[in-house]
Amino acid sequence: MMKFYSQEAIKLEKKYGANNYAPLPVVLERGNGVYVWDVEGRRYYDFLSAYSAVNQGHVHPRILNVMIKQASNLTLTSRAFYSDKLGLAEKKLCDLFGYERAILMNTGAEGNETAIKLARKWGYEKKGIPINEAVIVGVEKNFHGRTTTIISVSTDPVATTNFGPFMPGFEIVPYNDLEALEEVLQNPNVAGLWMEPIQGEAGVYLPEEGYLRKAQELCHRYNVLFMVDEVQTGVGRTGKLLASDYEEIKPDMIILGKAISGGFYPVSAVLTSSEVMDVFQPGQHGSTYGGNPLGCAVMMEALDVLIDEKLTENAYVLGKIFRERMSQLCDKTDLLIGVRGKGLLNALLVNDSEDSSTATLICYELMKNGLLAKPTHGNIIRFAPPLVITEKQIEKCMDIIEDAVLNFELAEA
Ligand SMILES: *Cc1c(COP(=O)(O)O)cnc(C)c1O
Q1: Which fold has domain 61-308?
Q2: Average pLDDT over residues 376-394
């Protein structure tokens, strides 16, 4: 067979695809655990993990086996019939995360759309909000996906410019600002408060201590549903099963996606109480592939792998080691100003403006040295390796990062 080279693959995407991403110029063809290989056979540490979808590592053998077995048996029934997997999958989610009910969708955006629809319907039918007046409150710098409704709450001009008109019924408050939040929640038409517990895409912004707990208290006081998007932060990524666990909050709804299916197959879910879930009646919401047996089987195994291999605990321990070493690195160079994060969701802050290309150039240097990471903005690099990474491997990766940063600084000087 003819060898397929990077340049040809890149040319094909450029010619026939959409230009809606700016990939690093590396063409991957194989993955295993923390590693991926390009078509020329070069090996890299994956420090993006497909935006935290591959927490269990690439091509995890247990998930692979279950996927093959289920794919040979039954893949899709639609929800017109029951399947032998859906109830088990829903029970697994409810037991593991401590909720009464679950609804399965496919992408994170769809999970969030589902949560919005639940909150609005709950607002009209349980809270007594006048029809079509429900408000959902989001926070600045949020990221919840790419649908026209979801971007209506975005404050990022890149995500919104020329995509209007936008969906009404949303209000935006500054992040970490409890006063502004309390003011807006006093509007009796507010059905839900919707936020990420740590803002991943924005650049790994952490809430001030106590913010989430106070926000939850305010939601209870004003009879507003607290909807927490754990699509990126959930499933062990931050060193707890949910990032919400850091403040011991129990949101009225959580939205999960990405790593709940270990990178094999798109599965998302909304978990909530019976009171909220029961606002959905037959025909009112759905998805052809949502909750299909293949997705359910893959998800159940991916969650078992997370528990059996203690990946959450590993993320907690290695995250501390990572941030400690990176903050020492920040002391050694003027190029970096800090590191922040929880567990293995971390960001290195580059001493340059948001519209600079410095973070991208550092990522090129990292790539040359065998480590793949992407900037979230011109001056923030996110580091999120698969949670199966070992201490020895992460030590090696920190050497790569340190060398790349110091070399880059020398070359610039
Ligand atoms: C990635 C992400 C989404 C969107 O998930 P998709 O599967 O890409 O639709 C939603 N919310 C958060 C917090 C995310 O990180």
Answers
A1: Aspartate Aminotransferase; domain 2 (3.40.640)
A2: 96
